[in-house]
Amino acid sequence: MNDRFVNGIRIYSLDNDTLSKATLDKIAKSKFADFKQLDSVPKSSTINLYSIIIQKPSKDFTPPDTNSLSYFARGLSHGEKSNLQKYNNVVSIVFQGQSKNVYDKQRRIYEFVNELVKDKNVVVADFNSYEWFNPKSWNERRVNKFTDSIKNIAHQISVHLYRDGEFCRAVTMGMDKFCLPDISIKAFACSDQKTYNNLINAAIQTLAENPYMFEDSTLTIDLKSIKNDVIRNELRTNLKQNAKESATITLKSIKPEKGNNFNKQFLISFQDPSYTSPQEEQDNVAANLFGAEDSIVRITHDSLLLKTSEKTRQRLPELKTLFNKGLAPEYSVLVKAPFKIENGGNEWMWIEITKWTSKSITGVLQNDPIEIKNLKAGAIVQVLEKDIFDYILNKPDGSSEGNETGKLMEGKE
Questions:
Q1: Is the N or the C terminus of the chain less surrounded, counting Cβ atoms within 10 Å?
Q2: What is the pLDDT of residue 410?
Q3: What is the pLDDT of residue 46?
Q4: pLDDT under 50 in the chain at which residues?
Q5: Which domains, from first to last, does the chain contain?
Q6: pLDDT per residue as tens digits for the range 175-214
């Protein structure tokens, strides 16, 4: 654990009904008699202290635009998002303090802010997690969901996801409120973002409940042993076949990247040389925790199936252009391609595309082969574009298009 916490809150007023500085100071002093009030918070101090300032609109406090708020707003209406762009003034509150009883201190801060914004026309920004609330969602998400004896940390922070080269990267925002390190994962297949978001949540909840790791920098995650009922049940929902519900990960201390919180950060590292790629090791860890599903369907490529495939392939040039222009992290493109088996024939498997050239496609294998030895899910593979049989385009809203041959085969089983 870090020896101190930092918590930055901003309250954006959307009308002229704002609290005076004198009133703010009075309420704060009554709630935080054990904290020292300063005009600004020094970076190196470890005593309990806070500062409160009121500012008129300026570039230093510019909120995100309405498009960005679609990712980071929690319960804001369209009107609140629009009115935030022309806010009246902002109250900036920064708390800093010792790690002792840090969860109780955060609870007090949440309740203090809740009292300030109740029945007000404001937007509250949690600048550690970079999330934006109205008074109702602040009360629901920050106050009411922080009452368990064993705190649910996963619901008090955010995980930011973005494309990083051919793959995706995810990093936590807000762990410094609890004197804990931020956790990141890089170079994973973007279509698996939900899985690796769950892996991060499992890791941070494990650290929050028992903030220690082994001397070899490993951390053992056991879903059944997580004490907070809410996050344990969430992580164990929809487990797939053969889930062991436990895995050991390696944590590597790294410098925060641009846009990350200025906080100690650990990368979940995948560097075991016994795997052919970091993605293969990632897939193994995820399968141990959450399980995996693979099945084999034997079917003849009749005229209807081939006709459906050919119609599907007509979409490939458009998808190729879309992919090479650069996809947002919530999008991913998968293609079904053939892999030769020893006794003749093909095993058809899905690949998430990471590179698409004029004739070939490189990507991450999404299936564990049934009939091909020495090839596992997560391996980096290359196939010819002319051999593609079908595609799936995953979209930000959770929907997808494609897999028409798969739908046809389901009806033939």
A1: C
A2: 66
A3: 76
A4: 413
A5: 4-146 (no CATH), 157-290 (no CATH), 303-410 (2.30.30)
A6: 999 999 999 999 999 999 999 999 999 999 999 999 988 9
The pLDDT of residue 413 is: 47
What is the reported pTM?
A: 0.91
